[in-house]
Amino acid sequence: MNIFKQSIIGFICFISLFLASCEKEVSIELEDETPININLPKAIFNNPNTIANQEKDRVIFNTIIELINAVPTGEEIYFSVYLIDTHEIADALIDADERGVKVNLMIDFSVDESTITNKVVHAKLIQHFDSGITVVNNVTSSSINHNKYVALSAINTSSGIINNVVLQTSSNMHDGATAKLQDALVISDETIYQGYASYHQDVMQLCYDADLTNYRYREVQSNTYEAAFFPRRKGGSIMVGDNYMEALDKIAHPESAVISVGMSLWTANRMNVIERLEELAIAGASIKIITKTGNDAAVNNALLALEKYDVEVKIFKTSEINIHSKYMLIKTNDWEYTLTGSGNLTQNALSNNNEAIITTHNTDIYKAYMANFNQLWQL
Prior knowledge:
- The chain is an alpha+beta fold.
- The protein contains 11 helices and 17 strands.
- The strands form 3 sheets. The chain has an 8-stranded mixed β-sheet with strand order 8-9-17-16-15-12-13-14, sandwiched between helices. The chain has a 7-stranded mixed β-sheet with strand order 1-7-6-5-2-3-4, with helices on both faces.
- The longest helix is centred in the first third of the chain and has 24 residues, at 3-26.
- The protein is globular and about 60 Å long.
- The model is unreliable at 1-28 (pLDDT under 50).
């Protein structure tokens, strides 16, 4: 056999082996979801002592990744965030898509902060997903998609399938968020899940149409939970109302009320909440407030002025302990109430931003948040 024929045969063998290896690779099945060990509802918090020691805590990030990894083929994910630079979360979303999960994404690109922070991960996701990723909130020049949620149609857990799961958090998904005091609430509720899915679809469609000014505020309510989806607008105009004020107005007997507020950002155009807290304090309510130095000076001065009515106020120095949670807890002789979500006590959060909050009278959730609040108070 001459050298030419040997070369031809060798080439044919090489091609055959290459094709065989390709066929073998094509036949490999995609990995299944990874069951998560979780019981719902569940409240999750960055460890206060870790944050106070100027260290980072990824517990919320890890839970988000584990939830995404637990979604079975054929199910659906709705994911919306203001800031993200965490590749592990992006990779989990890509892996979910590749195993046959329908993934719906909204990532903010409304302002410089989000455009710069999200640039690399956004490009990574754009490369993989065809469309439906970028959100530009055009309600005002400072409006943003401030949401931080993951809604999952089903997850596989160590005890079986759980349907209609929502994780609502105060935490953005960039590295800096792990150094702040954060909270997350994970629930299973069909009405609330469908509310998030519908909200996500509507915002995305309005974004395609460059018409978020015509978003219409809505609330959904089940037997256990209520969710509100912002901004509070209708027909292109700001709606009257304030969710925090509405919650406080439910207190019929202030003398029996215990109110605890953990708030990241508070601006002077939401002083009405402080005024209502003052009225409740005068009427006998027991009130504690935790916030930080980054607020408008007028706000922190007004909060400290409440101390003459026996309101207790703790203001963290942001450079030392940065609270990013946004929740309010109310306990009366008749009921317990938790309000948590992405919205700060600012006018933008109420009237212009894309935000979501969940409220509930669930006792276990209240106790978990109250325990966290008490930990923060000891810092």
